[in-house]
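User: I'm preparing a small set of examples for a lab meeting where we compare how different chains pack in three dimensions. I only have the primary sequence for this one, and I'd like the structure in C-alpha cell form so I can line it up with the others. Please keep the answer compact; I'll paste it straight into my notes.
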Amino acid sequence: MILADDSKPWPIVERFLQTLPAGSIGLDIGCGNGKYLTVNPHIFIVASDRSENLVKIANQHQPHASVVADNLLLPHPSGSFDFAISIAVVHHLSTRARRVQAVAAMLESLRRTNWMGKGRQPSSGDPGGKALIYVWALEQKSSRRGWDEGDEQDVMVPWVMKSNSRDGGSKEAKTFNRYYHLYRQGELEEDIIEAGGSIIKSGYEKDNWWAIAVRSGHLG
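Assistant: Understood. Below is the C-alpha cell output for the 220-residue chain.
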C-alpha cells in the first residue's frame, strides 16, 4: 500500500531540468500538481494532465502554462520544444501499443535532431530536443513491495489518498487501486526505439527505470 506524496522532486529529474539552457521551452506531460514547474526559473514549461483539478493546482505556478490533455494525443505543434519530461506516467497505460504511442507523441513534440537513425548515437552537433521518461521498475527486490525479475508485470497497487474531514478533525483516508505496468530492465529503451527515438542515457534510480532520448534523424 502506498501513501500518496507528490511533493518532492526526484533528483535525476531535478538535475535534468536545472542543466537546461536558459530560455528553453518544454513540456511536462502528466504534470500532476506541477511540482517540477518551480525547479528552474530560467525555463518555460507547458504542463499537461488528464485531471482538470490537478491542472488547476499546476496553474498556480506562474508564469508557466498548464492545460488538460491526453498524453496519447498531445495538442502541441510538432518539432517545437527543447525538452519534455514524463515522470511516472507511461507505466499507467495498459498495453504496449499505448505506451509506445505515448512515447512517440512526446518525441514528436521535440525539435528535430541530425542523428543518423533509430537507436544510434550522434558523432557531434546539436542533438535536438530531449525527453526524460521515468517508469516503475519490475526489479524492486530491496523495496517494501519486493517485486523482482520473474514476477507479474501488470499489477493493481493500492494508493491511499488522505484529505481533511468535513468537521475539520483528523484526516480521512481513501484507498484506490491503480494500474501499473512494471518495466523490466531494457524494456523502456525498447519502447523508445520502437517509438522512433534514440537514447542518450538511461539508468535505474530508487525502483524506477529512466531514459533520456531524442527523435531519431530518420523521422520525416
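A couple of notes for your slides: The chain is about 15% helix and 30% strand. The longest helix spans residues 96-108.

User: Perfect, thanks.
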